[in-house]
Amino acid sequence: MHIAVIGSCNVDITVEASRRPHAGETIIGNKLLVSPGGKGANQAVAAARLGAKVYMVGCVGDDAYGQMMIESLHENRVDTTYVITKKGVSTGTAHITLAEGDNSIIVLKGANDLVGIEEIDRAWSIISTAEIVLLQYEIPMDTIAYVIKKCKEQEIKVLLNPAPFTETPREWMQSVAYITPNEHEAKFLFEGQTRDEILAMYPDKMIMTIGAEGVAYNQQGNHTVIIPGIKVPVVDTTGAGDTFNGAFAVSITEGLPIKEAIAFANAAAAYSVQKIGAQGGMPLREELEDMLLCKK
Ligand code: RIB
Question: Annotated binding residue at 182?
């Protein structure tokens, strides 16, 4: 049993400061962190730390950051056979400001923009045998369309995390097994509709993260269920959504019902925000199980 993550590998360049600078202003920051990130790699690492066999499908550049990403995936026991190093391009980077209790991020896609049909076809033997395939929006949309179409034809379960926000064809939402927007992304996707109305269109399929409130979904077309978030001291929320997605995929493949899978993934996300860096706080299986035991 394995999980395939098709997505981005970014090096995150995080500056922590007491506040954000205004336009045209220079301020002094407190701390610099250069660490592995990217929604795809984050979700792969989150799932692997929780014990899943994970294959990453993506691209890095032939630079020091590309090497750093591959090494960090290895260290986390993610299989990188299908992470291709592209000559003459830069590895994706994310430029993150951490201030006033939240992050703001600018992504330069670099090699992530070269994840194309050829890379998918090359990895098809592991994608087509995956228990679940995870996708996000930091690689070309044409590639995502191709994967969703092929997976639908071959009845392969897909979890689509529509982040960062990009218009999403309704047809994709029908085709995938799970779609996991945050509330902000869901509001853009379904302008003018309430949370309950949006969730009711995709019962047991749309899993909406609603920040500190927790996670909402519609149970069997009946009503909205909210699984509350776990309150912890927050250091950095970067990658919390990715930790949630990776952990949710693990628990679903292990056969947990949706409600329990969400509770498990919520706990993983809560664990992760207590350290700086997208992957810095992601829990190992034992760590998460200890946390869940203490909560009981
Ligand atoms: O979801 C968090 C991730 O978004 C960061 O690691 C950064 O790389 C951006 O892609």
Answer: yes
